[in-house]
Amino acid sequence: MKANFKPMEFEMETDRLSLSMWRESDASWYRELVAERGQDMPTPNVARDKVISLRNKALENGIAPLTIRRRDEGDNIGYCGLVIGRSTLEEPEIAYELFRRVHGNGYATEAASVVLDGAIATGRHRLWSTVRSWNVASLRVLEKIGFKRDHSTWDERGEIVWNVRDL
Questions:
Q1: What is the DSSP letter of 25?
Q2: Residues 6 or more apart from 99 whose CB is under 8 A from it?
Q3: Which H or E run contains 58?
Q4: What DSSP line would sit under 92-153, residue for residue?
């Protein structure tokens, strides 16, 4: 593993949620999550390759987005974890995406809280998160777990708000 950080835990639990490493079988619901963004649904092979890539990068980098499963219902509702994204391995981003049908239940905050604890356990000192300015719900999740707005950048799709949390 690169840098001087411990790898994050790839299995985490809360009272309501189980977070874990991606399995090839997750490709089916991942396809639906991508389609919900308004993008074309990836083919089964493309989705499977993405899931395999996420697993390989996790083992290489020691950080990963983890699948989120509701413990009582047993259904997959999205992902949450650490990614390089627009940042770095030393100061990664926390990222999450959940199906719209489960928005408003506190699942993103709950998952992000346990991932935040996992990030602290790796020995990191700072996390970032980049969120489109229109995504008020995600900005609220970050606020609840102690992130502060740092600065903005812009691309062809508009404003990106950079949020930071010292650990």
A1: G
A2: 32, 33, 36, 77, 78
A3: helix 44-61
A4: -EEEEEE-GGGTTSSHHHHHHHHHHHHHHHTT--EEEEEEETT-HHHHHHHHHTT-EEEEEE
What pTM, to 2 d.p., does this model score? 0.95
pLDDT tens digit string along 7-58? Answer: 999 999 999 999 999 999 999 999 999 999 998 999 999 999 999 999 999 9
Q: Residue 43: what are its φ and ψ, rounded to 5°?
A: -65, 160
- 69, 93, 99, 125, 145 from 87: Cα distances, Å: 27, 6, 25, 14, 19
In 3D, which of 81, 73, 127, 137 has the Cα closest to residue 106? Answer: 137
DSSP 8-state assignment for residue 26: G
Q: Could you tell me how far CA 9 lies from the centroid of its own chain?
A: 14
Per DSSP, the three-state class of 4 is: coil
The DSSP output letter for 88 is -
Reading the block at residue 126, the tokens are 């700072």
Q: Is 17 helix (H, G, I), strand (E, B) or coil?
A: strand
